[in-house]
């Protein structure tokens, strides 16, 4: 297949809030991109999830011949859902209508995020947004998943955890009779309640637990000791999660997800924590759809590093 | 009213799973007891809750004249519900049909549990069962409530927390590839799944979060390091909660709730933790209905200490 200069690759990065697709040729020239609503089959009904993925793919393909697509990688959180027979059948039937010239390889969002930070086949990726999870990547595949237990059991250092800790710090302050200012004041304002223990508990329990993630910006935005303490603990917990996933001390570490962006206070605190632990400087993940397309091109290209530089500059 | 040897008192201890009532005279002679299903208005619809409370009271009164009841105390968790106008109206209308010869004083379950351990007016009570909460008691009333934030935000050291920590320890062990034995094996068996990360996460999330409390006996029953670590951390967290509530170093400390029974491993670990912190030996709460009856008799008796000894030997 090498040297087939008409071959195309299709990459998909499917999340809970958006589905993105990218089509390129083997020189790394981007021929189209597509975007649709969230397509994660764990947070959307199967017909909707598959429709969103396919919609993003069709938009990226544009007028190009789908049978020219020789490699397709679909990355998403909860990729094990693809092994569910009912979902798999639904996916294959809808996907067949795309008319791609190849099979589609499902991989975890961690594998895509890792490739979005480095062309290396092996290392560690840490993703933190609403949730938090790390993966040990070996040969561009998931070798181990650490954390990612969800809000009930884990997600330490995630936006959910930050919001929950903000409410907990507020309750502790109110029980102590501490002054209502900084983070405590921000949490009570956000919840729309007077600074009173029972009112805060009732308000925090009034909507779905995962909505506590909406309070995370109060932590990264406040500058008092309570917020500082939560930020520091988040960085330590996230570094611990990454450390458990890490295959060795020399392979690269990739950080992904909104919370770990270099502009985010958690991303900054985590980088400082990793530096204090003498880790090499972590890489920041670029766009997932481009990384998925790069993974799709891997078996078809003789120069994966150059292609990586072109697709993920 | 002193010296009225026909006066009766009625005490009620209303919980989520049972409602108990006790009628005595002012010498501490028990004239009747009653029991009904749970009557906590936060976990049962108002008509059911009030019907259970009233049923227990009627059974305790038996053939005695309700108008002879000169003191009535009703203790329950979530007593603030009594201030809810809709619930309050419903309660008063049903309660009036009992024909008591006095008003009914609602108090927290903490105040009743404290009185069930000591006749002192001031001190600390720590209650741990499915949840965990401490109260600072002053003059037989709640002066401060510490913890009791519920499963989403807190309940550290409670049965819920023990169960959640058991699942977390299991996930950590599975991620590390540790041998499947002891607590890890017990948790997987209880959840009915193979010892596999994803299966454990899915099973633990399959029912209501509070059901994690059902895994607590696995922790107190196991004898490996993982269980030992959870038991120790529970004791430290519970002692911290009690310490925050404590008015001073000399007033009594009362322990209540199934988890803190001297036969329970958590109760034992907590007593050891308090001893290590040089606290005086804590007292163990006796039956709540008898304590509520004693509180009801307080304004009517000249010898509360003797009455306490009789009602709560």
From TrEMBL, chains A, B:
Superkingdom assignment: Bacteria
Protein name: ATPase
Domain ATPase BadF/BadG/BcrA/BcrD type, first and last residues per copy: 10-261
CDD domains: ASKHA_NBD_eukNAGK-like
Alphabetical list of PANTHER family matching this protein: N-ACETYL-D-GLUCOSAMINE KINASE (PTHR43190:SF3)
Pfam families (UniProt xref): BcrAD_BadFG (PF01869)
Source lineage: Bacteria, Bacillati, Actinomycetota, Actinomycetes, Pseudonocardiales
């Amino acid at each position: 297949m090498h040297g087939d200069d008409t071959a195309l690759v299709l990459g998909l990065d499917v999340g809970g809030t958006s589905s993105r697709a990218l089509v390129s040729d083997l020189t790394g020239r981007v021929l189209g991109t597509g975007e649709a609503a969230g397509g994660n089959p764990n947070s959307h009904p199967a017909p909707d999830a598959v429709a969103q993925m396919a919609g993003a793919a069709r938009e990226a393909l544009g007028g190009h011949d789908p049978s020219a697509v020789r490699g397709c990688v679909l990355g998403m959180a909860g990729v094990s859902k693809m092994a569910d027979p009912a979902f798999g059948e639904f996916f294959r039937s809808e996907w067949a209508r795309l008319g791609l010239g190849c099979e589609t390889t499902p991989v975890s969002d961690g594998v895509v995020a890792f490739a979005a930070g480095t062309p290396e086949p092996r290392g560690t990726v840490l993703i933190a947004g609403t949730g938090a999870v790390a993966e040990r990547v070996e040969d561009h595949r998931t070798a181990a998943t650490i954390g990612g237990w969800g809000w009930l059991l884990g997600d330490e250092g995630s936006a959910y955890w930050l919001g929950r800790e903000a409410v907990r710090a507020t309750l502790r302050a109110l029980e102590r009779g501490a002054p209502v200012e900084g983070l405590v004041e921000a949490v009570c304002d956000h919840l729309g309640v007077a600074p009173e223990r029972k009112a805060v508990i009732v308000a925090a329990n009034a909507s779905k637990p995962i909505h506590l993630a909406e309070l995370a910006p109060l932590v990264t935005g406040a500058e008092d000791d309570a917020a500082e303490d939560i930020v520091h603990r988040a960085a330590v917990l996230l570094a611990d999660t990454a450390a458990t996933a890490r295959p060795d001390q020399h392979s690269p570490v990739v950080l992904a997800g909104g919370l770990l962006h270099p502009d985010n206070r958690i991303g900054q605190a985590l980088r400082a924590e990793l530096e204090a632990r003498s880790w090499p400087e972590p890489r920041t993940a670029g766009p997932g759809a481009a990384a998925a397309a790069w993974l799709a091109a891997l078996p078809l290209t003789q120069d994966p590093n150059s292609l990586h530089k072109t697709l993920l500059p």
